[in-house]
Amino acid sequence: MKKSFYLYVLTFRGGDWSDQKVRFAEEMFHEHNFPKQSTNFEELSTYIESFATDNLTTEAFDELWALYVEQW
Fold it and tell me: Which residue ranges does the record assign to the YozE SAM-like domain (predicted)?
């Protein structure tokens, strides 16, 4: 079974704050409405575009999504 994007990104928490992936993971963790069970690019992308912040960016999402797809 494929791990959700949320669970994959959580593995970046606690890293070097200069890494946008780490900042994204921390922000995502505190975002209670994040689609935690999703593995769907469109659903996640729409959410990120709608609720983007300084740390929850589309650039970081794209980078993390590419890594996520490589893993699975």
Answer: 4-69
